[in-house]
Specification:
InterPro entries: aa-tRNA-synth_II/BPL/LPL, BPL_C. It comes from Lyticum sinuosum. Pfam families: BPL_C. The protein is globular and about 55 Å long. Helix 2 crosses helix 5. The strands form five sheets. An eight-stranded mixed β-sheet has the order 1-2-3-6-12-11-10-9, with helices on both faces. Strands 18-17-16-15-19 form a five-stranded antiparallel β-sheet, with no helix packed on it. 26% of the residues lie in helices and 32% in strands. It folds into two domains: 268 residues, Bira Bifunctional Protein, Domain 2 (BirA Bifunctional Protein, domain 2), CATH 3.30.930; 43 residues, SH3 type barrels (Roll), CATH 2.30.30. By secondary structure, it is of the alpha+beta class.
Length: 322
């Protein structure tokens, strides 16, 4: 068997396929869906990934246990997202013609939600770690359910909690260095009956991610130097345990999104938004825009105020501080 099946009694709706080595969890998840073998709540985790993909098809590699590489599959066919935070109007994802069109409006909201899920998980892990408790997910489930019961040593500085930021639209930063990122994609099954969301997450645990490798001898030719990893902040956790924390928080935040809409998640994201209130510029293949980063709208689009005091919304691009 190419993978090991992991079941967790605290995550009864989740099945983990653990791969010792795989080219890409994201690509494998798409293959599973195309073969009509998808199951909602299936999570693929790779200890070693040889051909991972990121935003704009950037390539990523990781050596064993140095990064978390995972993809979560969610069947959206019967899911609802509140269309308006103040009304009971819902979009149903079983409308054959409008599944992809409608859901793309909310795909960005889910990117923010996933970033918040990762951030909340990391803050909790640090608090548990500082309380001298084991950060093993199963051993510490009582703390995960009731965060208020965690007694932190006041001498321990909360490095992660005090330095955690979300960079538009799908990056996790510690200080001014990238810790990880998120990739979302909506995929139809081959019979176009089911619509799936792929949530792919990469987090640096023990070292810098590899961005270039010699495929003839598998030697590393380049590592990302401007990045951070959890071990730098005293967090020594294995990829599987980290995935459990994130999955648990992801489903918690997902219920909030389905029940209450985007408003609470939007507020949580903006609280830690990198460069909020500062002058930035956005570049993509079509244009370059600059202005003060003033927020995001309810579709997750970036909002800037330019030098003419015009409010502009940006759909996609790369953000930089001016």
């Amino acid at each position: 068997m190419e993978y090991q099946i992991l079941l967790n009694k605290f995550l009864p709706d989740v099945t983990v396929f653990l791969y010792k080595e795989i080219s890409s969890t994201h690509k494998k998840a798409k293959s599973i869906i195309m073969n009509n073998e998808g199951k909602s709540g299936l999570c693929l985790i790779a200890l070693k990934q040889s051909d991972g993909i990121g935003q704009y098809n950037r390539k990523w590699y990781n050596s064993e246990d140095s990064q978390l590489s995972m993809t979560l599959l969610i069947n959206l066919t019967s899911q609802k997202i509140n269309k308006n935070n103040n009304k009971n109007e819902n979009i149903l994802f079983n409308e054959k013609e409008s599944i992809i069109q409608d859901f793309n409006k909310y795909l960005w909201q889910l990117s923010y939600m996933t970033c918040v899920s990762i951030g909340e998980s990391l803050i909790l892990i640090e608090k548990i770690n500082n309380s001298q408790e084991s950060i093993d997910f199963c051993q510490n489930y009582k703390f995960i359910l009731n965060k208020l019961n965690i007694n932190n040593n006041i001498e321990n500085v909360l490095h992660i909690s005090n330095n955690l930021y979300y960079k538009w639209v799908n990056d996790i930063f510690l200080g001014n260095l990238k810790l990880g990122g998120v990739l979302h994609e909506v995929v139809n099954s081959i019979d176009i009956i089911d619509t799936w969301l792929l949530v792919s997450i990469g987090i640096n645990i023990k070292g810098m991610p590899i961005i270039s490798i010699n495929k003839h001898n598998n030697k590393i030719t380049e590592k990302l130097t401007h990045a951070s990893f959890l071990a730098q902040f005293g967090i020594n956790i294995d990829p599987i345990n980290l995935a459990y924390y994130i999955i648990h928080e992801w489903f918690k935040q997902y219920k909030i999104l389905l029940r209450n809409g985007f408003i609470k998640i939007k507020k949580s994201w903006l609280k830690r938004a990198l460069f909020l209130g500062e002058k930035i510029f956005i570049t993509n293949e079509l244009y370059k825009e600059s202005g003060i980063f003033i927020g995001i709208d309810d579709y997750g689009r970036l909002m800037i105020q330019n030098d003419e005091n015009e409010i502009k919304t940006i759909i996609h691009g790369s953000m930089y501080k001016y």
